[in-house]
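Contributing new records

If you add data, match the layout below exactly. Sequence lines come first and carry their own label; structure lines follow with theirs. Keep one chain per record. Anything else will be rejected by the validation script.
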Amino acid sequence: MRTLLIDDEPAARDDLRRLLAAHPEIEIVGEAGRFAEAEALLTSTDYEFVLLDVELRGGTGFELLPHVRPDARVIFVTAHSHYAVRAFEVNAVDYLVKPITAARLEAALRRVEPNSAPPFTGGL
């Protein structure tokens, strides 16, 4: 599954990459650490799945949602649990709170598998 990692913390992207290495079905096709980079990546890359941080330099993950492909699945990844309700209101597949464990990521990835959840619809 072609995947984008969008998180403004390089260490968080490193952790996700390390955890995702145990899932050969996941192919990381792009990464971004800033809002403008993420916006460009979302509109110019072929992907099926996005791991999306909520708070980014220059904006929020929620502000990026209009740029997410309609058929892509989104999992929010953040250190802030208080955004969870809003994430599900915009049809996120899951919501991971940092630090992410291998078991929790695995559970979230099962929801991203084809036919396991409806594609992202853009929300509110």
